[in-house]
Amino acid sequence: MAKNTRLESQKLFERARAVIPGGVPGIRAPENFVEDAYPIFLAGGSGAYVTDVDGNDYLDMLLGYGPMLLGHACQEVDHAANTRQQAGFCLNLPQPELVMLAERLAELHPCAEQSLFFKTGSDATSAAIRLARTHTGRDIVLRCGYHGWHDWCLEGDAGVPAAVTESVIEFGYNDPDQLRDLLLKYQGQVAGVILTPVGHDFDAQIEPPGAHYLRDVRALADEHETVLIFDEVRTGFRLAMGGAQELYGVIPDLTALGKAMSNGYPVSALVGRREIMEAARRTFISSTYFPNGLSMAAALATLEILAREPVLTQIAQVGQQLATGLQTVVDETGLPVTLSPYPQMPFLYFDRSLASDQDQRRDRFYGTLAQQGIFAHPRHHGFLSWRHGQAEIERFLEGVSNAARSALG
Q: What CA–CA distances, in Å, run from 162 to 132, 134, 159, 325?
């Protein structure tokens, strides 16, 4: 249980602001949570829990923004990484894990005839765009959803020249007619269509695809001879071993993978059809750290556990129990939120259209959760791990019930 002391976090934050822009950059900055309710720095994690630098323990419902599918400090995964580390992992040439992991991904994903490995999801999606353009000889990209921080997917952001993004056009999720119109407008010019098969924008509730949406997108990409790219950095190895494409039975040409693939170790992948992946030989994609075997060893161990143990089945079952309990709390309290349609990715979302002063209610709700020792994000969906069991679900539901009363008080 949290002690509600944040003295060490505040001291570190003051030091950080002197040497780091904003103290904590990006999505982890304090202003993206509820200031003065959450810690700013964490010291460690174990299983379904994390501990901050002041010694406060939290039930972790965010899991590092998704990677910790097996829970924090999974000994089997860490042992595999340590074994590779002791043998050396930043070498002049790749290690055997490169081939082994590519073979394993080919077994799990129908489109994964070949693989390229990187460090982040942004690396993988950016490589997908590069290969689509190289393969087709076209420039325009149609995109839907969040795909990282690189220039091509940040239209209008400071420091991003308009010339970089003028060939990237956004379309709405679950709107095949809009996509059809764009493909007709730019007939013969579209290199690729990239989307998250499940809608999960920041500060928005998760949205499942309509009954025929992904099949419509697949058919449109085929009709216009453009590369279809699924960004499964979040959904891969979580909704199913083969990701959302396995769940919904729609196979893209390229798939970006990451997060849950290696239980926190930095590795991502772009997998896809051989014909398109071979375009990597006609462009330049390289990095000092891309072939490091340490994270690949962790990924192999993670995938072995997922194949051997009923990890995803257990997460789905626990998630469904949680979803049922959350619906009961919402019904009983009248809390103005919507709930995630995916039990594995829970989110109590304070949609502004459901009630007035939602931002204030949201902050009271999530601030109360944090003060009870529950770490969930106010504007980002959560995740469940293999280490979330009955005790964790009961604790979360009790916390949500208390926080609901605070938000409505």
A: 21, 22, 9, 47
